[in-house]
Amino acid sequence: MHELSIAHSLVEIAVETAENARMKRVKALYLKLGALSGVVKEALEFSFDVVIQGTPLEGARLVIEDVPVKVFCPDCQEAHKLPEPFPMRCPVCGTRTGQVLEGRELELYSLEGGEGDAADDAKPPNC
Questions:
Q1: 73 strand-pairing partners
Q2: pLDDT tens digits, one per residue of 4-28
Q3: Residue 124: Cβ within 10 Å count
Q4: Which residues are annotated as a binding site for Zn(2+)?
Q5: Which residues take part in binding Zn(2+) (predicted)?
Q6: If you average pLDDT over residues 62-78, what whole number do you get?
Q7: Starting from the edge strand earliest in sequence, which strands make up the sheet with 100-102, in order?
Q8: Contact present, 51 and 81 (Cβ < 8 Å)
Q9: Residue 55 has pLDDT above 80, yes or no
Q10: Known binding-site positions
Q11: I want to staple 3 with a disulfide (CB 3.0 to 4.6 A). Which of 42, 44, 52, 99 is the partner?
């Protein structure tokens, strides 16, 4: 279960970012998770709840934004979101494509601070 090591890394990044932003408390971590990331959302949520115990993030929520697969169709010359990750075919014309534009994300993009913090929102460094 690599979700446990991912959750651990998220906590390390969030703690460091919160300290740098002088956040007294972190209420939530905001994460983009692509359908092709290889991460099982439920396992990550469970792992996160385990990993935050006894850390400065204890009690924080993990808010996950699901990112669907978006591909570029060479025939239509347009980008399209797929209703399902597979098969990778244009939903308009049916052409096969492997040109993935979105859907591989695993990105911690924001922290929500507790009340009274100098910085209520902090953006973590690119990882």
A1: 78
A2: 999 999 999 999 999 999 998 999 9
A3: 20
A4: 73, 76, 90, 93
A5: 73, 76, 90, 93
A6: 97
A7: 78-81, 70-73, 100-102
A8: no
A9: yes
A10: 2, 73, 76, 90, 93
A11: 44
Is 115's pLDDT higher than 60? yes
Angstrom distances, CA of residue 105 to CA of 15, 34, 67, 89: 21, 5, 7, 20
8-state DSSP, 69 = -
What are the helix and strand counts (H, E) for the chain? 2, 7
Proportion of the chain above pLDDT 70, given as a percent:
89
Q: Is the pLDDT of residue 124 over 80?
A: no
**How many CB atoms sit inside 10 A of residue 22's CB?**
11
Would you list which residues are annotated within the binding site for Ni(2+)? Answer: 2
Element (H, E) at 51: helix 41-51
pLDDT, average across residues 42-61: 96
Cα distance between residue 99 and residue 52, in whole Å: 37
Domain boundaries of the chain, sorted by first residue = 3-114
Length reported for the chain = 127
Instruction: Find the radius of gyration of the CA atoms of the chain.
Output: 17
> 107 has which bridge partners?
32
